[in-house]
Amino acid sequence: MTKKVEPYKGIAGIYEEIRPSYPDKLIEDIICKTNLKAGDKLLDIGAGTGKSTIPFAEKGFSIDAVELGEDMAEILKDKCSAYPNVSIYVAPFEEWNNPNGQKYDMIYSAQTFHWIDKNIKYKKCRELLKDDGYLVLFWYSPAEVGTDRTREMQKRIDLIVSKYVSRYSDKRGKPERREHDGVFKEDDRAREISSSGLFELIEKINYTSEIQNNADQYLKAMKSVPAFASVMDGLDEKLIDEIDKEIIDLINSYGGHIGTLFNYSLYIARPV
Questions:
Q1: Do the domain assignments include residue 51?
Q2: What is the pLDDT of residues 117-163, one digit of tens each?
Q3: How many structural domains is the chain composed of?
Q4: What is the pTM (predicted TM-score) of this model?
Q5: Quick check: is 58 in a domain?
Q6: Percentage of the chain with pLDDT > 70?
Q7: Which domain holds residue 109?
Q8: Does residue 169 lie in a domain region?
Q9: DSSP per-residue string spanning 219-250
Q10: Among residues 64, 25, 37, 52, which one has the least CA distance to residue 133?
Q11: How far apart are CA 125 and CA 106, in angstroms?
Q12: Rounded to an integer, what distance in angstroms lies between the CA atom of residue 140 and that of residue 22?
């Protein structure tokens, strides 16, 4: 059996550079709707490179940030070096032991909760959360709707990759890297929260933002996705360079950029 590696191993730098940040309005809504006050204690599950850690650290909240990936955690540590109110733990959340034994005013997870063992995550969050605390989950994903131009470009990009890698498809994603078994569709997320029997979903809010990438940025965005990185893992550099060149030439033939509309979904829950 092939040993699985961390999903973002070797691509953490690309992730930090190219993945979108979270809208200011989303962060503001979380603070307002959960009644957070400066000094409140937060737990950030799957903190990654800190894209959801820094916005709360800047506002003076005390944060314990748990991150599985060593590559991601190195970037997180560097970014948080100016924030003594952030403590970083490199461990899977499922195995992490709360060293201080305290409970949290808010537990949150950005773009991560589907990676956590579904048999553990809600139970452990409930144990770590104050009775009057909040569980806050948020994700982003490219919108399925888009312009005809964007859809046409994406189809042609898929054909380029599939020409070189026969196992490439939107549903690949299971070669060498750790995969998730969590829900990812919006309705399924809401149902999972409620069916845990431990939390009640009290509010869901959607946000939208468009990002324009040039050819180089779009390539980096593709490579920051573990499923795509899995496909690239076994290829030699010469072949990857050929794929990159064809994709760059294609995007440049369409004017040199490709737009992606992102949907952000925020879920706010309370203990039952």
A1: yes
A2: 999 999 999 999 999 999 999 999 887 656 788 888 888 988 988 88
A3: 1
A4: 0.81
A5: yes
A6: 89
A7: 12-146+180-214+259-271
A8: no
A9: HHHHHTSHHHHHHHHTS-HHHHHHHHHHHHHH
A10: 37
A11: 10
A12: 9
